[in-house]
Design goal:
Shape: globular
Oligomer: single chain
Pfam family, one: Amidohydro_1
Protein name: Formimidoylglutamate deiminase
Organism: Ottowia testudinis
CATH superfamily: Metal-dependent hydrolases
Strand content: 15-25%
GO molecular function: deaminase activity; formimidoylglutamate deiminase activity; metal ion binding
Helix content: 25-40%
Distance between the termini: 48 Å
Number of helices: 14
Number of domains: 1
CATH architecture: Alpha-Beta Barrel
GO cellular component, one term: cytosol
CATH class: Alpha Beta
Radius of gyration: 21 Å
Length: about 475
């Protein structure tokens, strides 16, 4: 099939009726006609069609211990139990994972994403070496596991190998739990060069039976984990390999991180980054939760995307990003599921809106003058920002973009009988933990039908076995 007729579809400009979507053998839209009638023999969407969301921040291996850290350790009080105590538990888990387990966990997580409305994932991959910190014989073994998982699931992938060198600002030595993450800058650049040769470049041919092509980028983990010289050299090296490659970095996620950066440099993290790195539209500032007024304005002006992960930020007690202030300065943003305590695109959008309501004590914060419907406004912005952060043409239902889209389940009780725009709002705010998706399409291929991914049973079994093995003695 290379076309689909949608009685109602959400285009980058808003809702339209009578939309004929056409794509080519490489899985990219060639034409999007509005005011059309369904051609003879063409398939007809059984519900409203909306663009799929890119997932701009993922640590796939963390899906296997989601929900297993929801207790207060002995001797840790409610104030001390935070991101930092959670991180200690995460390190224990990361210390045991193997390439085989990572592939099984990531495959299942990616299938869950497809069933939940994501069709592309930016994988922030920082477990590089064997448990004792020595490299695998195949130095790219863990990245290869992610590549196999994405290919097996049929999800689009932006692979972001992570540069990690120190445990704190001022190039503090790494801790024992960080040994598997550590790479020299030269080692990272060699890895990127190897992967760049192995991965088809953006714009390369894509066939329907092979799935979407993979994009390569770089992720300096954070300012505390990457000293200034290494940050400069790694970004320059990535630019030499591919000047358009995405660059993602954790920043200003925690108030302790801000305080430590001030003590080290006299500047807040985002201010320091903007003064010392060539931040532009290629960059994704993951979390960026704790910024000053000036940082919001300066960062938005670079064109960088803010990578927001509402369910993880809530789970870890990070704080709340000020979305209206960011948008006031024209800032782009997208959604990530990060630690995967929740894999549900609609629920992330809902949580983003609800945290804004709680902090501002107001409703419909995500709506705009141009688009007063909150779900529609937030969905379109998340698609655009996520596509930019991915470095891939997945920016919605338009010619030249990859044919990634969702068909909402018009018969779902939360949506039944509603107009298209209200159906999307019901999908975001009223469909519950089970989303109201009927189909997920990636590069012109339907990979989820009637809300379920074909062959999910085997992948789920492999995930459960991998998790059971990893949890022994942890």
């Amino acid at each position: 099939m290379t076309c689909l007729f949608a009685p109602h579809a959400l285009l980058p400009t808003g809702w339209a009726q009578g939309v004929l979507l056409q794509w080519n053998a490489s899985g990219h839209f060639t034409q999007v006609h509005t005011g059309a009638t369904c051609p003879p023999g063409a398939a007809r969407a059984a519900g409203p069609v909306v663009p799929a969301l890119p997932n701009l921040h993922s640590h796939a291996f963390q899906r296997a211990f989601a929900g297993l850290t929801e207790y207060r350790a002995g001797g840790v009080d409610v104030v001390a139990d935070s991101f930092w105590s959670w991180r200690d538990l995460m390190y224990r888990f990361a210390g045991r994972i193997t390439p085989e387990a990572l592939e099984a966990i990531a495959t299942w997580a990616y299938i869950e994403m497809l069933e939940a409305g994501y069709t592309h994932v930016c994988e922030f991959q920082y477990v590089h070496h064997q448990p004792d910190g020595t490299p695998y014989v195949d130095d790219a073994a863990m990245c290869h596991a992610i590549l196999r998982a994405a290919r097996s699931a049929g999800i689009g992938l932006t692979l972001l190998p992570v540069l990690y060198q120190s445990s704190g600002f001022g190039a503090q030595p790494p801790t024992q739990g960080q040994g598997r993450f550590i790479r020299s800058t030269d080692s990272m650049l060699l890895l990127l060069e190897q992967l760049n040769k192995e991965i088809p470049r953006l714009g390369g041919d894509l066939t329907l039976n092979q799935g979407p092509a993979t994009r390569l980028g770089l992720a300096p983990h954070s300012l505390r984990a990457v000293p200034p010289d290494a940050l400069r050299e790694a970004v320059a090296g990535m630019h030499a390999i591919d000047p358009r490659a995405p660059i993602h970095i954790h920043i200003a996620e925690q108030t302790k991180e801000v305080d430590d950066c001030l003590a080290w440099s006299g500047q807040r993290p985002v201010d320091w980054l903007l003064d010392h790195a060539p931040v532009d539209a290629r960059w994704c500032l993951v979390h960026a939760t704790h910024m000053s007024d000036a940082e919001y304005q300066r960062a938005a002006a670079t064109g960088a995307v803010a990578g927001l992960c509402p369910s993880t930020e809530a789970n870890l007690g990070d704080g709340v990003f000020d979305l209206p202030r960011w948008r006031q300065h024209g800032g782009a943003w997208g959604i990530g599921s990060d630690s995967h305590v929740c894999i549900n695109a609609a629920e992330e959008v809902m949580l983003l809106e609800y945290t804004q309501r709680l902090t501002r004590r107001a409703r419909n914060v995500g709506a705009t003058d141009a688009q007063p419907d909150t779900a529609t406004a937030l969905w379109l912005q998340a698609v655009a920002g996520g596509a930019q952060a991915s470095g891939v043409a997945i920016g919605g239902l338009a010619a030249g973009q990859r044919a990634d889209f969702l068909v909402l389940d018009a018969q779902h009780i939360a949506l039944q009988g509603l107009p298209a725009e209200q159906a999307l709002a019901a999908h975001v705010f009223a469909s519950g933990r089970g989303s109201a998706l009927a189909q997920t399409w990636v590069a012109g291929t339907c990979v989820v039908l009637e809300g379920r991914y074909s062959g999910r049973g085997h992948a789920r079994q492999r995930f459960a076995q991998a998790r059971t093995g990893l949890l022994r003695d942890v």
